[in-house]
Amino acid sequence: xxxxxxxxxxxxxxxxxxxxxxxxxxxxxxxxxxxxxxxxxxxxxxxxxxxxxxxxxxxxxxxxxxxxxxxxxxxxxxxxxxxxxxxxxxxxxxxxxxxxxxxxxxxxxxxxxxxxxxxxxxxxxxxxxxxxxxxxxxxxxxxxxxxxxxxxxxxxxxxxxxxxxxxxxxxxxxxxxxxxxxxxxxxxxxxxxxxxxxxxxxxxxxxxxxxxxxxxxxxxxxxxxxxxxxxxxxxxxxxxxxxxxxxxxxxxxxx
Length: 255
Description:
Blueprint: H1 2-15, H2 22-28, H3 30-46, H4 50-64, E1 67-68, E2 73-74, E3 79-80, E4 87-88, E5 93-94, E6 99-100, E7 105-107, E8 120-121, E9 126-127, E10 132-134, E11 138-139, E12 144-145, E13 150-151, E14 160-162, E15 167-169, H5 197-229, H6 246-252
Parallel strand pairs: 1-4, 2-5, 3-6, 4-7, 5-8, 6-9, 7-10, 8-11, 9-12, 10-13, 12-14
Antiparallel strand pairs: 14-15
Helix pairs in contact: 3-4
């Protein structure tokens, strides 16, 4: 029990630069308190003490602002950062090393008792503030859910889901969102500037336009040389001097 508690404290120290000591984490972090109380409630739930499990869960909700159903399965080194208003449903599963921020809902869309109604998060998943993950599907290892995203379909491992409804951005070279390995870099709130699909589309259009302008410029130069050899006037004088300022457009979309 104490080794698991030490692991929980260390994972918070690793991921939260505001955490200054193990004592501060132990006494002042409601996410840790919610995990400790959930383990007691989960034990009661699995051993037939359903009401007691729900009561511990209810007390934990009042103390921490985090509502975790006692039937939910939570792995090791899970960090509820800030986490006020988090709701985790009965059949939800949270894998090792996940990070969940405030206002997140791991909810269900089915009313059938006994069915898998809530999502399963793989290892090292980051679910950003206000995100809603709704349904009994799987979010793959190392995936990232953007702030306020509404996810209603599976997310592949390493991918990023942003928007309403969420759009899936494929992973880049198998990068993970979290810090489980020494070669991985933790991304606070799970989202970087490269994870905006609209910006990515605009950058692609800008790069394509810049490439086309370069080709047109080369054609103009070749035409000028040809006209000079034939002693002919160059058609459309001045048009070749117009330039597409790709750098300014890239700055506007945050490149």
